Amino acid sequence: MLLSNAFLVISLTLSASLESGSAYSLFRRTSSFFPRDWEPEICNPDFEGSALSVVGNHGEWGAESIEPGSHIIGTSTRGAEIANADFHFTLTHNGETPRRYVIQDVDHADLVVGIVNNKLQLQNLNISDPTQIWSVQCEFCDSGFAGEDAYLAAYDCTISSPTTEECVELGLNKTQPLTLVPCSRRDEKQLFQFWTANATARGE
Ligand SMILES: *[C@@H]1O[C@H](CO)[C@@H](O)[C@H](O)[C@H]1NC(C)=O
Ligand SMILES: *[C@@H]1O[C@H](CO)[C@@H](O)[C@H](O)[C@H]1NC(C)=O
Ligand SMILES: *[C@@H]1O[C@H](CO)[C@@H](O)[C@H](O)[C@H]1NC(C)=O
Fold first, then answer.
1. Given pLDDT bands bounded at 50, 70 and 90, which one contains residue 84?
2. Which stretch is the leader sequence (predicted)?
3. In order of start, what are the domains of the chain with their CATH numbers?
4. Dist. CA 128 → ligand 1 center (Å)
């Protein structure tokens, strides 16, 4: 208990400092010392089947309702469905290398995140639909956390579509659908954290 609380404090401090952009300003300040083609090391997380909250700088993934055609939005609602107040997803590998993922509703494995008109929405799983396959690239990926609560599994992650090579971005406000836009690692609206916890357990 003490240990996991200590971790939570550390990870919250870490995420707070990331949110304030200090890691990025540090990178910008020091980047001239690196060779021209220097890039941060990128990892593709293994989420070990955990239920996850996907948290961005001003919102957390949710859905207008839990049915096909419902948009993914920036507030952790599940519409009328309250069984799991914070909207949780599971990201399952589809077996490709580098790792690609199917993003499933945690309570309905047949409902997955796909794309229509550049907007993210829940759809019935269709294994021949390439827009239901996602790439997740992070600057930090942990492992060995299966079953842990309030664990920051990965952070500084972009979530992109290998089909369009565009990245997921939060809307300007929490009720707008998440969209696919040209990728920019400097845009905080495109950076996400993956937590094995709801907002209460994260201490928010
Ligand atoms: C599944 O996806 C394929 C490829 O995009 C599409 O042709 C097909 O109509 C889809 N099936 C259903 C049931 O939507
Ligand atoms: C969020 O954006 C939508 C669409 O532009 C708008 O209808 C709604 O009023 C906005 N909500 C808030 C709280 O600003
Ligand atoms: C959030 O997680 C905590 C800790 O696991 C749990 O006690 C609480 O019931 C959860 N709250 C909601 C709204 O799911």
1. low
2. 1-23
3. 38-196 (2.80.10.50)
4. 6
